[in-house]
Amino acid sequence: xxxxxxxxxxxxxxxxxxxxxxxxxxxxxxxxxxxxxxxxxxxxxxxxxxxxxxxxxxxxxxxxxxxxxxxxxxxxxxxxxxxxxxxxxxxxxxxxxxxxxxxxxxxxxxxxxxxxxxxxxxxxxxxxxx
Length: 130
Hints:
GO molecular function, one term: nucleic acid binding
Low-confidence stretches: 1-7
Order of helices and strands: HHEHHEHH
Number of domains: 2
Structural class: mainly alpha
Number of helices: 6
Radius of gyration: 16 Å
Number of strands: 2
Oligomer: single chain
Protein name: RNase H type-1 domain-containing protein
Domain RNase H type-1: 19-92
InterPro entries: RNase_H-like_dom_plant, RNaseH-like_sf, RNaseH_domain, RNaseH_sf
């Protein structure tokens, strides 16, 4: 499959968000980061794509370099339907004129969504025997 620029432009914002999220976590001094990605295609790109002629190659290489720094980082696939925090934050971002914003604490609407996702995550771990 040949990827053209119009096709990838829809995925560029996700890659940019992944890159800046990792960079922010690094600058804040986090030592362990787990990234949940709801696009299997992006996960595959970051994990194994040949970036030499890839339209998003520079972004993918930046993300790989960030993940290979001296910290524990991992990527995991999550279903879009189960990623309510990201959905909430994306909708919040659409309501602001700011290009980039950092929340130092969860908004009132985000906290209950986050707690519900944590419960689901822990239940899933128990079912898998982790």
